[in-house]
TrEMBL record:
It comes from the Bacteria. GO terms for molecular function: methyl indole-3-acetate esterase activity; methyl jasmonate esterase activity. This is Esterase. Residues 5-229 form the AB hydrolase-1 domain. Pfam families: Abhydrolase_6.
Amino acid sequence: MSTYVLIHGAWQGEWAWELVKPKLESLGHTVVTLDLPGSGQDMTHPQQVTLDAYVTKVADVINQQNEKVILVGHSMGGIVITQTAEHVSDKIDKLVYVGAFLPKNGESLGSKLTGQKGPQFTVNEADMTAVLVPETIENTFLNATNDEAIKEAAFKKMRPQALAPFQQQISISEEKFGSVDRYYMETTLDNAIPIDFQRIMNTETPCKQIISLEADHSPFFSKPDELVEHLHQLR
């Protein structure tokens, strides 16, 4: 069996994986989740949150494992796992992008979003965070999720997102990042990162396999069993 490290997206936390983690563990895998700095229950001040801080935390977790890991990133987590792979490529067996950003060298998440549709937010200038427009959250993130209790809980748990990680350029090489096999799970009903945009990214940066999920931007809630099965098959 394998060790999976699951990285959440913007505005979220390790709580996003609360259905996926036990299902993967029941199949015999080791599963590690974490809150990125300033996310979930991590109280790092937004002005101290950077992409480098994300990468340091994820790399530290990976280095604590006894074997190479399957590193999974959702949404903004795709930026995080990409840069992390440049630092600890020898510790990563596979990179898995789940409805995630897949950047090229020199790009930032902000530059990747230029001209693209995405979540609607306002900027809190005082602490430089992005605050989701509440009435758009369900249609953007949970449009194919039917469980009302899950949707209500997710709505309550989302936090303002530090903007600095959106602005830092990725620095990756073929020798390190490029040496790790990449897999992309498309979320075809996604309103946060539309499927056409996902396919542009996974064409620009080719992956070993493309997997399609008929899911919204939260496949861990709308299609948890299918997501787990696909992850399990990558072991």
